[in-house]
Amino acid sequence: MSVQETANATGKAPVAASLSEAYVRFGAFTAIESLSLEIEEGAFYTILGPSGCGKSTMLRLVSDLIPAASGEVRIFGKSTEEARRAREFAFVFQDATLLPWRTALQNVQLPLEMGKKRGVTIPISDKTPMELLELVGLKGRENALPHELSGGMRQRVAIARALVCKPKLLLMDEPFGALDEMTRDHLNLQLLRIWEETGVTILFVTHSIPEAVFLGQKVLMLQAHPGRLREIVPIDLPYPREIKLRDTPEFTRHTAHLRELLETC
Questions:
Q1: For residue 103, is it within any domain?
Q2: Which of 30, 66, 131, 135 is the residue whose CA sits 20 to 30 A from 156?
Q3: Is residue 173 within 8 Å of residue 59, measured between CB atoms?
Q4: Which residue range is the domain that position 47 belongs to?
Q5: Are residue 126 and residue 250 in the same domain, yes or no?
């Protein structure tokens, strides 16, 4: 049964990620306090908040990179460690972190090679690495080395690499933050197309209010000192979305509301 069929039958979409009274502490410092929420399977959530509010820490908590001091985090009903071992999720960082001596195609193939080398059974995308490069708009650049690609192209390789093991959850920590506005707009459109084609659940951290509104079905607004959930803001704008949407009164209404929240966080 598909996600949509399950939602229609039960009145509620299956849960991709759930956090219940989760705390993260670094020594005496509380980075995240009492974070509780559910992320529906197939949803696109963007995450906003002031510096130091725990946006990146939240993604690292979900991805089993750091432990919860207390509370519980579940990914598709599994512990974060179980979900990581099952390759239920993938992480895309702000830096593409490609191996410089490997071509774009070889970088995308790397997780499959590592799984085979370790004798680990991992999920494999329905699309080949070449098809994934085509999906992210890099057909014809499969033999290029990272230094021969622009910053935006390197990030697209990183996204293709993240998708090669067919994750059900994609965690993205400001992946377009270092790019110019035109490149960012182009990659926003590509990411929405990938989301619609694959059905992957996405948690996307950004510092950009317009980007958060343009991409997300819902925006998680976090508050700092310590990091905690301030508000979940639904974005009632239709898909598919085009860049001209940003010029509409409806878009401006959402950005204005989020700016007001951010100023009081």
A1: yes
A2: 66
A3: yes
A4: 1-88+196-265
A5: no
User: Alpha-carbon distance 202 to 76, whole Å?
Assistant: 13
Question: Which pLDDT score is estimated for 11?
Answer: 59
* 3-state secondary structure labels for all residues of the chain: CCHHHHHHHHCCCCEEEEEEEEEEEECCEEEEEEEEEEEECCCEEEEECCCCCCHHHHHHHHCCCCCCCEEEEEECCEEHHHHHHCCCEEEECCCCCCCCCCCHHHHHHHHHHHHHHCCCCCCCCCCCHHHHHHHCCCCCCCCCCHHHCCHHHHHHHHHHHHHCCCCCEEEEECCCCCCCHHHHHHHHHHHHHHHHHHCCEEEEECCCHHHHHHHCCEEEEEECCCEEEEEEEECCCCCCCCHHHHHCHHHHHHHHHHHHHHHCC
Residue 250 has φ and ψ, to the nearest 5°, of -65, -40
Give CA–CA dist 19/71, Å, rounded. Answer: 8
pLDDT of 139-182, one tens digit each?
Answer: 999 999 999 999 999 999 999 999 999 999 999 999 998 888 99
Contacts of 1 (CB under 8 A, 6+ apart): 9
Quote the number of domains for the chain: 2
Query: What's the CA gap between 180 and 108, in Å, rounded?
Result: 24
User: Does pTM surpass 0.90?
Assistant: yes
